[in-house]
Every structure is written in structure tokens, then in C-alpha cells.
Write a structure and sequence with these properties.
The chain is 49% helix and 23% strand. It is an alpha+beta fold and 558 residues long.
């Protein structure tokens, strides 16, 4: 299928020196509870992870409606979403399976109007679409409609590519390794270790890991955006598609941050602090450039919160490996390092907790969503890990730091093991957070659920726009705008809405509408009991001697 781009919208580490490997080996051999914990984390993450792909922008209404049978070929198609989108691929599939690219379209707020370039013959057609959400995540689908009479629908595949999703998840984890352990580690070496060089090779390896993962993630984003297979990864259009999404900005800023962190380690010592500080700021900016939390409203609050949260994670997580390696290899060098870290970590943890709480409240909204949504379950796993991490950090800070600074050898060994366990937990948190790439937050789901179910009914005698809000089961309100068949005003004496679904065994729901001052008709005392495809009929009393009945199917969500 043709694609049209519009606008943007394994091992734990790639490599390390022998001292870093020995540190982790010490944890694995002497800290079996940590390994058990890591295994439990993986299991919890697997349980919490979603079993299917979710949309991040929901399709609200279409024209023609899905399953509609039209008397003649439409001049254009219309797709309305729950949030603004940018189209990536628009294709019309004929009854014989021939794809026709649709290149002429217009964006009007949340509605995408697509021109039909040709007169369509009889049979069932498929309008296949793929768009990019504001958070940088793609979503696609299709609408079936028929001209004259239905025929066998042409096959359009929308299967989830599990291999691609796994690659995107792995790329996200290594992106976090490069930014948090790499750039954050460079900041710790420049500002906390000062003249110390322990962990330098480890941090360089993490940055190099990120420098490989970041551009590769851009290509994977392009594949996901266009729904393309792995074999097309080398095509320029794939990379252009990835760059055109909001994730493209994350990639560009992340590359700058990784480069600054690397220069602070291998460049002149005089400018190391400035470069490392700019790199740490780049970590926060990269995370704030795209993603669920960044596009949430109000953005004047959410983007700064994401920036501070990301920078705080890099400060904490980045210092762990250099500090642990310094304590293991160079105790004299580690003592001032440990003192500076213990003094700075308390305000950093306070910032992390405050920003994380604000973002969680905005994204989750209702406590029930913590258990009812995949996003909420992943958040619970992350919170459990954070509580364990905070408890471990508190023990390190108030029970082990003082004796370690005093030179007690056994306490230093315990502190090294504890830091190693902290690193394992941090890596597990990276894995859980990467799973959010495939789960819309409850905030987005609530916005989609509140969208109306709408249908346009057009006959030679009368036409109407019917909206049922919200478009799911339960108490709803119906809004009706009526006109003549040629779009003129229709001064009706009475309008009655009849909803029927014979296959459900429910008697038709009949309600008289009330005319409002703006000319619209409204039904408020309405409850839709079951989801599915209903038939909406409007009985329009034009005069005492004439009544016009028009109807069309309307889909009600669960």
C-alpha cells in the first residue's frame, strides 16, 4: 500500500570494563534474594503487560459509517478522532482487492476529510487508514462500506507484529540505559566523583549503547508508523516516517545529550562539568519531547514535570555504577564521592516523588483504573519497585553511609552489594516503563470513551446529524440536527428518536425530542442498555398530514 507522510507528529549492558562485570557478578553470587526479586519483577511485568495493541487516538465517527450500504459513490470520506492526528497512510481497497492510494485530504481539528478520486463501482470497499497520535504513537484501522449491495469484503490485514513490538521495547530499554546510566553516569563522574575516574569505561559503554539504540529506535518507529515489515527497515521512507513523528524530536535531543555526556568523559577536563550538566538537561528535554505524559493537558505543567522527573532519574541511577565501582576499587576516592551523593540525593528523591505523583494523577485520574487498565497495572508494578528501591536507599543513607565513610570495611562491602541490587531494580523499572509504549493511559481512554457516537442520515426528503453522547452503554443524551434533503431548513413540528436492536431481545426505545433555542433537537432521558450496532430511526413530523421516517445504523461502544 502507498504511504504518504504529512508532518510530525539481551544483556543488561552493551559492554563494560572488568570491574563493572565483577560488581554485578558479586551481586549475583552473594545476593540471591536480588536474583529472585528480578525474576519476580519479570513475571509481574509479563502479567501486567497488555495482551493486545491499543489505540492512542480513538476513531469516533466515520462517513460513510462502518457497514453502510450507499446508493451511489461518495465524493469524500470523513474520519473523526478523539484527538488531533496526522495521517500516515490512506488507502481505498476495491472489491477485487486492488489498493488505491488516497493522496488528497484536509485536516479540520480532529476530523480528517479525504477526497475520493474516482467513481466507485458496486460491491464492498474498504477504507484503510493509519494515523499518528499527538504522543507519537501510530494507530490504524479500516472502515467497510458497500455501493449498491454488499459483496465479499477484500482482505485487509491489521495483525500486530509481535517481533516489531519486542524490538521497540528492547530499543526503549537500551535508550534508557544510554540516557540514565550513560549520561547520568557522566554527570556523576564530573560533579560528584570530581577527580575520580572509577566507572568511566562502564559509563562510556552505556553511552555507546544508547548511541546505537537511539537511531535504531527511530527506524523501528518508522516501521510501526507505516505498519511495514522488518525487511523495509533500510528504506529511506521508513526513517522519514519515524522522524516525522514527535518521537523524532526525542531522538534528536537524545543524540545531543548522549554526545555531550561522551564529550564530558573523553574531552578536556576543564569543560567536563558544563558538558555533563548540559547532557543531563538534554535527558529531561528528550523525554519531554514526546510520549503519553508530555502531551497530556495542561502541557505547561506536564512537560516541565517530565523534564524534572527524567533529569532526577538520570542523577540517581547514573551515580550508582560509578559509586559502587569506586567503593570496590578505590575506597579513598569513594569516600568524598559517597558524601556528596548522600547530601544531594534527598532533594532529588523529593523532586522525583513529587513529579511522579503529579504525572500519575494526571494520567490515571481514577484509582479504579490502576487495576482495570494495562497502564495502571504497569504503574502498580513500577510503584512496588520504587517502594523497594526507596526503602533500600533509605537503609543505605541512614545506616550504611556513616560507617562506610568512617572506613568500616564490612559495611563498605554491604553497601556495594546494596548498590548492585539498586541497579538491578533500576533496570527492571526501565523494562516496566518501556511497556507503556504500547498502553494508552486511562486519561486517553477516558477521553475516547466520552466521545459521541454519530451518524449522518441522508434521504431525498430529509437529512439529519444524530449524535449520542457519550457513545457507550449507560445514560446518554441525543442531539439531532435536521434539514431538508437539499440541505435547506426543515421546520418540523415534532421529532421522535427510535433506537432498536432486534437481535438483543430488547423492545425499541422510543423518545420524543425537545427543540432547543438554537434549532437542535435533544433527548435527555435515554439509557442504552447494551453495546453493538443499533438502528436509529427519526420520525419527523413535518405537518399534520406528513411524517418522514429516516434511519441508519449507529455503533454503541461497551
Amino acid at each position: 500500500m502507498a504511504a504518504r507522510l504529512v508532518r510530525k507528529s539481551a544483556p543488561l549492558f552493551c559492554g563494560s570494563d572488568m570491574s563493572a562485570a565483577s560488581l554485578l557478578r558479586t551481586v549475583c553470587t552473594t545476593g540471591r534474594p536480588a536474583i529472585c526479586l528480578l525474576a519476580a519483577i519479570v513475571l509481574l511485568a509479563a502479567i501486567a503487560a497488555p495482551g493486545q495493541a491499543f489505540a492512542h487516538a480513538a476513531l469516533v465517527t466515520t462517513e460513510p459509517t462502518d457497514g453502510a450500504v450507499l446508493a451511489q459513490s461518495p465524493a469524500q470520506f470523513s474520519l473523526t478522532f478523539s484527538e488531533p492526528v496526522s495521517p500516515l497512510m490512506l488507502t481505498l481497497v476495491r472489491p477485487d482487492g486492488t489498493p488505491v492510494p488516497l493522496a488528497s485530504f484536509r485536516l479540520n481539528a480532529q476530523t480528517l476529510d479525504v477526497d475520493n478520486p474516482q467513481r466507485l463501482g458496486s460491491g464492498t470497499h474498504v477504507l484503510s487508514w493509519r494515523v499518528i497520535s499527538a504522543d507519537g504513537h501510530p494507530v490504524g484501522g479500516s472502515v467497510l462500506f458497500s455501493i449498491g449491495a454488499p459483496s465479499a469484503a477484500p482482505a485487509v490485514s491489521e495483525a500486530v507484529d509481535r517481533g516489531l513490538r519486542s524490538a521497540i521495547w528492547i530499543g526503549k530499554v537500551f535508550l534508557y540505559v544510554g540516557l540514565f546510566l550513560g549520561v547520568g553516569g557522566a554527570f556523576a563522574i564530573a560533579w560528584l566523583a570530581k577527580s575520580g575516574r572509577s566507572g568511566r569505561r562502564f559509563v562510556i559503554a552505556a553511552i555507546l549503547c544508547g548511541l546505537v539504540a537511539v537511531p535504531l529506535s527511530l527506524g523501528l518507529q518508522g516501521l510501526d508508523a507505516l505498519g511495514a515489515p522488518f525487511v523495509q527497515l533500510a528504506q529511506p521512507g521508513i526513517w522519514q516516517a519515524g522522524l516525522a513523528t514527535s518521537f523524532g524530536w526525542t531522538v534528536l535531543v537524545a543524540l545531543v545529550a548522549l554526545g555531550l555526556g561522551l564529550l564530558s568523559l573523553v574531552g578536556p577536563r576543564g569543560g567536563a562539568k558544563l558538558l555533563a550538566f548540559a547532557g543531563l538537561a538534554g535527558v529531561g528535554a528528550a523525554l519531554a519531547a514526546s510520549g503519553h505524559a508530555s502531551v497530556a493537558e495542561p502541557q505547561w505543567l506536564t512537560r516541565p514535570m517530565v523534564f524534572l522527573h527524567g533529569a532526577g532519574i538520570a542523577f540517581w541511577a547514573g551515580a550508582l555504577a560509578p559509586l559502587g565501582l569506586a567503593m570496590r576499587r578505590k575506597p579513598a576516592e569513594a569516600t568524598p564521592f559517597l558524601r556528596r551523593f548522600s547530601q544531594a540525593i534527598l532533594p532529588v528523591v523529593a523532586v522525583l516523588a513529587a513529579t511522579g505523583f503529579v504525572l500519575a494523577v494526571i494520567q490515571v485520574q481514577a484509582p479504579a483504573a490502576l487495576l482495570e487498565t494495562a497502564y495502571g497495572r504497569l504503574l502498580l508494578v513500577k510503584l512496588a519497585l520504587l517502594l523497594f528501591l526507596f526503602a533500600l536507599a533509605a537503609i543505605n543513607r541512614w545506616k550504611l553511609t556513616g560507617p562506610a565513610e568512617a572506613g568500616e570495611a564490612e559495611v563498605k562491602r554491604r553497601l556495594v552489594r546494596s548498590i548492585g541490587i539498586e541497579m538491578l531494580i533500576v533496570l527492571a523499572i526501565f523494562g516496566v516503563a518501556a511497556g507503556w509504549r504500547f498502553t494508552p493511559p486511562p486519561r486517553a481512554l477516558a477521553i475516547a470513551a466520552a466521545q459521541p457516537a454519530s451518524v449522518h442520515i441522508h434521504t431525498p426528503k430529509a437529512m439529519a446529524d444524530l449524535s449520542i453522547t457519550p457513545g457507550h452503554v449507560g445514560p446518554v443524551a441525543a442531539s439531532i440536527v435536521i434539514m431538508t434533503g437539499d440541505f435547506g431548513p426543515l421546520d418540523a413540528e415534532q421529532v421522535t428518536l427510535v433506537l432498536s436492536k432486534p437481535d438483543s431481545g430488547i423492545e425499541p426505545i422510543k423518545r420524543a425530542a425537545t427543540k432547543r433555542g438554537d434549532g437542535t433537537w435533544r433527548v435527555d432521558d435515554l439509557v442504552v442498555p447494551v453495546p453493538g450496532r443499533w438502528t436509529a430511526r427519526l420520525d419527523i413530523l413535518v405537518s399534520d398530514f406528513e411524517i418522514v421516517k429516516i434511519e441508519a445504523p449507529i455503533d454503541i461502544r461497551p
